[in-house]
Amino acid sequence: MHSHILTPALTTRIRAQRLAPAADPSAGAFHANLAAALNDRRAAHSLRTISDNNPQQSKKIDFASNDILSFNATGQLYHHFLSELTTANPPGVNINIGSTGSRLLDGDSLYLSQTELLIATFHHAETGLLCSSGYDANVAVWTAIPRPGDVVLYDALVHASTHAGIARSLAMEKFEFKHGDVEDFREVLGRVVREQGLVRAGRRSVLVAVEAVYSMDGDVCPLREMVEVAREVCGTEELRGSVQFVVDEAHSTGLLGEKGEGLVSALGLEKEIAVRVHTFGKCMGASGAIVLGSSLIKTALINFANSVIFTTAPPFPLVATIRASYALLQSEQGQAARERVQHVVRFFYEELTSHPAWHTARERGLLSVPLADDWDSRAFQSHISTVWTRPQYMYWLYFHLHAEGYCVWPIEHPVVPIGQSRIKVSFHAANTDEQVQGLVDAIFVWVEEVTANEEGRANAKVTHAASVVYEWMRSEGLDGFGMV
Ligand SMILES: Cc1ncc(COP(=O)(O)O)c(C=O)c1O
C-alpha cells in the first residue's frame, strides 16, 4: 500500500514545500525577491509543481481530468482527428501547418473562418472568433467589450481568466455579487442603476460575468432567473438593452443542451445573451476556445483585444482537432458519451445517498456533498461534484482516496477561499459503474475509519493512509498537509 500512497506526484508536491535557503545577497535583488516570494508560497504549503499527475500515466482511476466525454481516453478523438486531416487536406492541396501570422495579417485562412461559421451555427449564434485558449478568449472579451464608463458585475466565483480580463477592462466600476445568488444580483444591479448616473440615463451599460457551470463547485448558473431580474430592474424604455451578459460556457460545452450546445442554448436564451465563451480544453478533449456573439462583438474583438491582435492565429492542427471534436460530439458516439456521463453522475449520487452510513456521516460533519442534496430533482447532472469533510480531515480523505487508486484533487486556497478546501470529483463517460461504486465504498471505508478513531474503537488517532504519509514526511523533516 505504501507505494500506492507515496507516489512521485505526491512526494514531489510535498517535498517542494521545503523552504529554500535564502538567495545569496550578492546575486542581487532580482533573484532574492523572486526566491522570497516563492518561499512565502512554500511557507503556506501552496507551492505549485509540475509532476506526473496524469491519471493515465499514474494508472489511477480518472475522477479528475477534463476529458469528461472520454474522447481522448477512448481514442475516438484521435481517429476523428486523422479523418479530419484527410478531409481538410485533399491530395495536391498544400495546407500550412503553422499559422504564418496574426489572424489580422497573414494568419487567416478559409479553414479557420469556415470552422468559426460551423461552430457558430452549431450553437445558434451569429458569428464566432476562435482563440488559442479559453484564458485568451476571456481576456479578449473583457479588455475589448466594456467601454469607458460601463459597469461590470461578476459572480464571486468566476474564473481567474475573467478576473484578469476585468482587471484590465476599461470599465471603471466593478462589483461582485454573491455566487449564484439571484437576489444578491438584483440588489447589486439595483444599486448600480440607482447610483451610477450614466447607467441610469441609459448612456452606459452593465456587463455581467457568469459561468454556465462553475468549475470548482459544479453548480449551474441560474441564468434564466438572472436575465429575468435584469429585465425587471432595467425595464424602462431608456434602460432597454443596458444589461448584457457574458457567459463562460467552459464546463457546459459538449454536455448541456440537446447536442451539447451549452447552457444558453439549452435555455433558448441565444438572443438574450451578448457573448458566450466556449472552451475546448474540457469536455471537448482538445484545446482553444471560441467567442460567440454578433458581428458587432467580433469586430470589436479584432479591433480592441490585444490578445487577439498581437498573437499568432490558432494553427491548423488545433483547428483540425476542434473540428474533429465537434464532429464527434454530433455523432452517435458523442450522444452516447453525453448520456453515459449523466448515468455515471446519477449512479454516484444514488449509491452515495443510499449508503447506510450516509446520514450519520453527514450528521457527524464528516461528509458533505452539496450537489447530492437534491440530485434527483435536477434534469441535468453536472459532471463536477465536490466532497467536503471537516477542514482538518480534508487531506486525510485525499490521501485515502489516492492510496485506493482514485485520481481526485484537493482544491485549496488560493483557488478557493481560505477554509473552503474540498475534494473535486469529475465524472467521465469512460468511468465504469464498478469504478463509481468503488469510489463511494472507499469514501465510506474512510468515514468508518475516522469514526472508529473518534470513538476510541481503534487504537489510532490518524487514519492509515495519512499516518503513512506523515511517517514519511517526519522522516524527511517536512510538515503541513493536516499533519498531527
Ligand atoms: C471557467 C473557465 N473559464 C476559462 C478557462 C480557461 O480555459 P483554457 O484552459 O482553455 O485556457 C477555464 C479553465 O480552467 C475555466 O475553468
Notes on the protein architecture:
The protein is α/β, with parallel strands linked by helices and 484 residues long. It folds into three domains: 1-53, no CATH class; 77-329, Aspartate Aminotransferase, domain 2 (3-Layer(aba) Sandwich), CATH 3.40.640; 336-475, Aspartate Aminotransferase, domain 1 (Alpha-Beta Complex). The chain is 43% helix and 11% strand. The chain has 20 helices and twelve strands. The chain has helices at 2-5, 8-15, 29-43, 55-58, 76-88, 110-122, 134-144, 160-167, 182-195, 197-200, 223-233, 263-266, 295-304, 306-309, 316-329, 332-353, 358-363, 394-403, 433-454, 464-475, and strands spanning 61-62, 127-131, 151-155, 173-177, 206-211, 243-248, 275-279, 289-293, 384-387, 406-407, 409-411, 422-426. Helix 8 links the parallel strand 3 (151-155) and strand 4 (173-177). The mean pLDDT is 94. Bound molecules: pyridoxal-5'-phosphate. Pyridoxal-5'-phosphate (PLP) is lined by residues 133-135, 138, 159, 161, 211, 215, 248, 250-251, 279, 281, 287, 289. The site of pyridoxal-5'-phosphate has 15 residues, from helix 7.
